[in-house]
Fold each of these.
Amino acid sequence: MALERTLSIIKPDAVAKNAIGEIYARFEKAGLRIVAAKMKHLSRREAEGFYAVHRERPFFKPLVEFMISGPVMIQVLEGEGAIMKNRDLMGATDPKKAAPGTIRADFAQSIDANAVHGSDGADTAKAEIAYFFAETELCPRG
Ligand code: RTP
Ligand code: MG
């Protein structure tokens, strides 16, 4: 498996629940390394830009409202197969369908407030990392 990087966001609901540490522990126990991180209260423009691929979807407006409802914790995770590994740790988008033991099963309350974001492929990972971090802010640990 290749060494990859992926963008992860701990969304406002999980930050409000004080669950950053528990979620970070899951990343680290799965062998993912946090190579960059920042806490941020996204502006409307930042959230709309980040989720631009969904702009025509009916859930776009509530998604943006939710993402700007409080601070988020944004990190770059690095590791073997990091993109899929993080998606597996997160579980299904709808927490009702998320497998037991996944982050969304344990911390999310609804499909809208679903605790975490993770890039869904190599191209989106690259673009999403660049959306929030300059190359010089990454501390690769291989
Ligand atoms: P994310 O991008 O946040 O990691 O989540 P995902 O890949 O599992 O889901 P995606 O299809 O990319 O959708 C982005 C976010 O939009 C909200 N959503 N709501 N009401 C709905 O049918 C619906 N579908 C998606 C979710 O909060 C999802 O995380
Ligand atoms: Mg997605």
Amino acid sequence: MQPILDISDLRKSYGDGFEALKGINLQIEAGEIIALLGPNGAGKTTLISTICGITTATSGAVTVGGHDTIRDYRAARAMIGLVPQEINLEPFEKVINTVRFSRGLFGKSPDEAALERILRQLSLWDKRDSQIRALSGGMKRRVLIAKALSHEPRLLFLDEPTAGVDVELRKDMWEIVSALKEDGVTIVLTTHYIEEAEAIADRIGVIAKGELLLVEDKASLMARMGQKQLDVQLSA
Ligand code: ATP
């Protein structure tokens, strides 16, 4: 079966010549949850940004659902939802308009039933007419996910969705991710937390200094490596 995401020898150098991605290879099957673990500066955001077309790869190739992200950008991007690390929401906008507008940006026709489904899925339906500024941090994160799902993508990237949030909110996020998987959404998330990867991922990748050091089934990785060893690797 064709992977939903296929990354071949992806490299990214920034203008100063710094090589942030040093030849990443990764295939992801539809329906999987992959957690990419890595310390600050490992290249996690650069990887996601390059796949999503926010930055341009120096070389290599990425396909999403068989669509090349350069040659066939629109088709590939239509299949991708992106939840960025920072909360980039308009504070005075209503929840429902935020999601509605995002859907429009992807050229999808208005579909109030789809909007309702997405907002209900994230327990935001009762808050649909609230302004973003009135929401708690946890609810704002839910809106970010709803916005990313507005055009009904099959592949969702979550860039450090629980960075700086408390334990309660972290668990809340894990439940959302599991529910999305049940709905058939493929998820790639980045994290610093090994317990997060362990709690929700099917496979875990370890990324450091622009290299994907390993990608392995969670159970076999946990059995093979003690948590201590992984912690050492992540803090290197
Ligand atoms: P974090 O966990 O802190 O978000 P990360 O794993 O997401 O880190 P990136 O943000 O992808 O890491 O950064 C990877 C490397 O690329 C870092 O050394 C960073 O300083 C560098 N980098 C990122 N963006 C740029 C840029 N626009 N120009 C030059 N270097 C950059």
